[in-house]
Amino acid sequence: MNANWTFGRKIAASFVISSVLLIAIGVIAFQSIDQLIDASYRVTHTHQVLEKAASLLGAMKDAETGQRGYIITGNESYLEPYQGALLEAPRLLKDLRNLTSDNDQEQKRIDLAEPLVTAKLAELKHTIDLRRAGRGDEALALIGAGTGKKYMDDLRVIVHDMDDTERGLLKQRAVESEMTSIRAKNVILYGTLVSLAFVIAVGVLLTRALNQQVGTAVGHVQSSSAELQAAANQQASGAKEQVNAMTEITTTISELVATSRQIAESAQRVAHIAEQTALAAQNGDGTVEKGQDAIAAIRRQVDLVVNHMLDLGRKSQEIGAVLDIVAELAEQTNILAINATIEASGAGEAGRRFAVVADEIRKLADRVAVSTKSIRSQIDEVRGAVNTTVMATESGAKAVEAGARQFNEVAASFRQITHLVATTTDAAREIELSTKQQASAAEQVRIAVTDVAQATRETEASTSQTLQTASQLAGLSQDLRRLIQPLSA
Amino acid sequence: MINPPSTPWLICQNNHNEYAFALCDVIETMRPLAPHPFAGMPGFVLGVATLRGQAVPVVDMTALMGASRTAPPGRYVTLRIGARVVAVAVDSVIGLRRLDPAAQTDLPPLLSEAAAHTVSAIAALDSGLLLVLQSAHLIPQAVWQALETQELAQ
């Protein structure tokens, strides 16, 4: 039996197989009993044929006995058997023909017996007629001729053959009936035993399967019941926490409603202040335009200063070029003076005075060189200062330019501020409207949350009911386990 | 050549040191001209410069003293070596100074701080140049300050 079948399917299969076995046993028993009945019918039929054949021979004997009594006595009362045979013999022949209609051999014998019966009855009638006509002697002579006796002898042989045949059939059918009876008894006995063994085996298997499957299922039900209890406990705990959370949410939403109303009032104030800011921004825009004009004038003055300083720088550069020439001359003079001193020293005493003059020239050249260096240093400082001033002025010009740009940006910012303030005013009004709607929505949410809190409390109650049901389910599963397993198991 | 006691000396400055050349050996001072290096020249020679139409070897005073030059020379001092001329590259030429003849013997010779192999190389190349350089002096800082004070007093 397939292990994957359901329990109901297994039971149904067992019933189907048991029913098939019972039907098979019933069909075989029915056939055996039918064959037994048929055999009994055939035996009875054979007995009827034997009885009819014996009756035919007896009727013919009675007719002959009545004929002989009448011929001897002339008394009509002796003809009663004969009269009875006249009526009985054709009927018996007809019955025999009907009873042996399935037996060709017997039909042929009846075909032989029927003219013999007719001829015997005609011979009897002729002799009786002769005796009634007073011709008793002729009747006796006819009897003495032995014709009638031959008819009876032939008829006896035929009836005897029929009797032998029917008794053989009777013996054969008795054997068949016995065999059929034994087979029927065997079929009923062994079929019943096989069916009983099958039912017992199926019962044992089903009981084991029931214990195993239902036991496993009960175990699962117990485990699930325990989990359901734990889940119900958790759900109950969660529902309590949810109730507390819902209460907190309700409080928070109430605060949110109050806050939204405050925001709406603040947004109203913001819109009012934004309008004032827009007015101030327009005034600032005018002030910035005046500042832009002043900065443009400063910028022109700065450009003039830069040009003058650049001229000063160029003049200083020209002075530096002149100083280079002076320094070059001083250096060359120094070299020449030293060389003159050397030459004068080589001239002996005559060159001494010239050497003094040359040395003085060298000293003068040195002083010129020093002064030139000093002037160059001062000129360099002047040029540095000019450069610094130019750079500072250019930085100032750039700063003025940047200031002008910043003023432009400030003006643009003021215009943008005006635009933004207008936008802010609109936004503040929208915020005021939205906040009022938000307050209304929050109020609706608070009501909804209150409903949810109520639903949560109901859920908590349902969870308690679930917990109770889970406990009952666990008890029921234990009862079911006790039903399929003994307590000792 | 022995410097006469009353002869002034040419004072040059190089690498923060002052040197005194005997004026009888000095031809002239001039701005430096570009020297042309030649193969196989010693380390203290900068090359050959054309001075007054004559090819003159240029000796670097800084290299002669065993140091490395960090700035180009400011002056050439041409020295008379017999019939030949040699230029010495220095930072600057200060001028003429008269030295006390008694103190001249205390002044260290110019090559006193030069390396021995440098002196050997100069001797191998030009013994006349060696004599001229040996007659020059290295002026210590104390002597130089005394000379400057005397110069300012005059």
From TrEMBL, chain A:
For this protein, the record's InterPro entries field holds: CHASE3 (IPR007891), Chemotax_Me-accpt_rcpt (IPR004090), MCPsignal_dom (IPR004089)
- Extract the PROSITE patterns matched here: CHEMOTAXIS_TRANSDUC_2 (PS50111)
Q: Which residues cross the membrane?
A: 12-33, 187-206
User: What single Pfam family name could you report for this chain, choosing any that match?
Assistant: CHASE3
Q: Name one GO cellular component term.
A: membrane
Highest taxon of the lineage: Bacteria
Phosphoprotein keyword on record: no
Tell me which Gene Ontology terms the entry assigns under biological process: chemotaxis; signal transduction
Which keywords accompany this UniProt record? Membrane, Transducer, Transmembrane, Transmembrane helix
Q: Which GO terms describe its molecular function?
A: transmembrane signaling receptor activity
Q: Where is the Methyl-accepting transducer domain?
A: 217-453
Family stated for the protein in its record = Belongs to the methyl-accepting chemotaxis (MCP) protein family.
- Can you name this protein? Methyl-accepting chemotaxis protein
- Organism taxonomic ancestry: Bacteria, Pseudomonadati, Pseudomonadota, Betaproteobacteria, Neisseriales
Automatic annotation (TrEMBL), chain B:
The family database entries (Gene3D superfamilies) matched by this protein are listed as: CheA-289, Domain 4 (2.40.50.180), SH3 Domains (2.30.30.40)
Pfam families this protein is in? CheW
Quote the InterPro entries the UniProt record gives: CheW, CheW-like_dom_sf, CheW-lke_dom
GO biological process terms, semicolon-separated: chemotaxis; signal transduction
Which ranges of the sequence are coiled-coil?
Answer: none
GO cellular component terms listed in the entry, alphabetical order: cytosol
Q: Where is the CheW-like domain?
A: 6-144
What is the name of the protein in this document? Purine-binding chemotaxis protein CheW
Q: What is the lineage of its organism?
A: Bacteria, Pseudomonadati, Pseudomonadota, Betaproteobacteria, Neisseriales
